[in-house]
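Just wondering, does anyone understand these tokens?
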Amino acid sequence: MARRPSLRRVFIAAVLAAATAIPALATPANAAVRPSWTTGSAAGCGATAQVVAPTATADPSDNAMSPARRSLLKQIKASGVRMLTSASCRDRGPGHPAPARRSAAGRSTAAPDGTAHPDTVYSETSNNWSGFENYDSVSYTQVTMAWTVPTANAPAPAEYHAAIWPGIGSGDSSSSALIQDGTDSDAYCNAAGCTRHYDFWYEVYPAESSKTVSGLSVKAGDKVQTSVIYDPSNKSVLFFFVNATTQKGLSITQSVSGLGDKVDQSQVEWIVERPSVSGTLTALTNFGTMTFSQTQYTDSSYPDWVPGGYAGAESQITMTNCKDTQNLAVPYGWTSDLLTWYDVWVNAGKWESC
């Protein structure tokens, strides 16, 4: 069922229409044109990857700037972070496929007062994903989410992993990319104790290995936000990373031409994942109870951000072990603002191949 336009949407659309009718001030012919963006090295990242950062003269109202860049600039200005101008990557490991999901019957969540909850929520299970997934008859263009990086707790001596991310795409086809970025909270433990690792990362799946980003540091307890912005006009992606605790940010742009050639824009998701290593699903880091905020997306039908809990159809995905006999992580949502949800760790499970 398609979303019905709210009064807020109608009002914003009218404001935008009025704004576009105002002519821009002409630039004098002899005025120097200053670049709005700088590009920097992204060694070891994707083949076409570059670090991009706005200059002091960058203006989000500049209609010569692509919608994707304008949106990124607005997010940078809103976050108040200092943008890095170079970074590097290393292979995080082989890409991991989207989960085989098993659906239960849908249930209506429409509130009697007309509150814009999803029209239909489907309860599903997955062996590596826990979270929410939206899919309407639209083309998704942006997704974002904020969280506090969890400590990589370990219930016993072993190796544990947890990847947290927003993304666009299903990962079900080699011809259409799944694009995602987020953080890792990993623990390598023995009887003497644990070594823990925390990183930012991004991925264009399935064509490339996921990339751990060096240069923008992150640790347990840091407040972070990541965004994925797809520009279908030139088949490129902007990955945006914010560490609000250190007040630093980073954006990497990359073409998807030759990497599936386009992005699967049919769905958008916000996920806690136990990744795979060499085809084997890992044990899940004990992250406790996590709160996810600023869960939002944009799509082809509307120019402004939409709360993640506002959708025509949505899947609520519980992570289970391969035999579906034990829950590993369970999502709960949404709060009244439709921007916030929770994920609860239940069990680490074990390394296993489903």
Residues 1-32, 104-116 have pLDDT under 50 and may be disordered. The longest strand covers residues 178-190. Helices lie at 7-20, 67-79.
